[in-house]
Amino acid sequence: MPNHPDQQSPQPDSSLLARTFESLLEGITGVLASERKDKILSAGHLLQALRSSGFLKQLKAEWDAYCSMGRIKDDYVRTDQHQECLQELLDSLDVDAPDHVRFAFLKKILLSAATERSSTRESLLPQQYMRIARSLSSGEVIVLLATYRVADNGQFEREGAAFTWLMRIAEESGLRYPELVEIHERGLVQKNLLTRRTHQESAVTLGERFRLTQLGHELCMFIETYEEPVSA
User: Fold this and answer.
1) CA 72, 74, 78: angle at the middle one, nearest 5?
2) Where are the domains of the chain?
3) Which of the listed residues 9, 25, 47, 206 has the most CB atoms within 10 Å of its CB?
4) Residues of the chain with pLDDT > 90: what percent?
5) Are the C-beta atoms of residues 85 and 132 closer than 8 Å to each other?
6) What are the b/e assignments for 163-177, b being 16+ CB within 10 Å?
C-alpha cells in the first residue's frame, strides 16, 4: 500500500485519495511485470491489493460527492480527527485482509464524522469508534447491527433465555445458525459492545437496548447518520 497522509503538509483529501489509489495500482502493475513476482507477492496478497484498490476508489467517489454537495467543510481535512480516522482506515486496507462488511463500517464512521452532524471536529469519539470498528470481525459487525435493528424496533421482552436472543439475532442478521451468532457474541461482549449473560449463563438481561451496551448503542447510532451520496 502507498504511504499514508503527511500530517505536516495537509493536502486536499480527494487529491490525496486519488494519489493513493494511483500509487497502489502502479505498485500492482509493477509486481505483475516483474520476473520475481512469485517471490514478491503471493496470489492472496495480490487479491488483497486489488480489493483494497476497489475499496479506496469507492471511498474517493463518495468523498468527492460529499464535497460537491457541500456536506464536508473545506478545512476539515486539516483536523487531527480526520487525519487519524483516515490513517486508521488506510492501515486497515494495508494490514488487514479487507472485506466489504468491515470496510463499509469504517467508511461510514469516517464520512459521518466528516459531515460534523453528530460530532464536532474536536470530539475524540470518532477516532475511538474507528479503532473499535477496526478490531471487529465482519461477523461481529453483522451481529452488532442486527442487535441494533431489533433494539430500535423495541418489540422484545426485557428478560429472556440466551438461546431466544441467539435465535432472534440469527434470523435478523441472516446468519441463520444461533451457534454462529454465539461465536460473534463472545467477541462483542469482550469488546464491551454487548452485555454479559447472567450468572446462570443460560439467561440474559435484554434491558432497553436488547443487550447493547451504551457504547455499542451509540456507535450504531453514529453509523446511522451516514447517508449514501446520490451522485456517488
Assistant:
1) 105
2) 13-135, 138-223
3) 206
4) 60
5) no
6) eebbebbbebbebee
d(CA 41, CA 29): 12
156 secondary structure, DSSP code: S
φ/ψ bin of 34: left (φ > 0), alpha (ψ from -120 to 50), beta (otherwise): beta
Q: Residue 57's pLDDT band (boundaries 50, 70, 90)?
A: confident
Let me know if 26 is exposed, middle or buried by CB neighbors in 10 A (0-12, 13-18, 19+).
exposed
| Segment 168-185, tens digit of pLDDT | 999 999 999 999 999 999
> At residue 193, what are phi and psi to the nearest 5 degrees?
-105, -20
CATH, domain range 138-223: 1.10.10
CB distance 178 to 163 below 8 Å: yes
Q: All 3 cell numbers of residue 80?
A: 487531527
For the chain, the farthest-separated pair of C-alpha atoms sits apart, in whole angstroms, at: 63
DSSP per-residue string spanning 94-153 = HHS---HHHHHHHHHHHHHHHHTSSS-TT-SHHHHHHHHHHHS-HHHHHHHHHHHHHHHH
Provide the grid cell at 7.
500530517
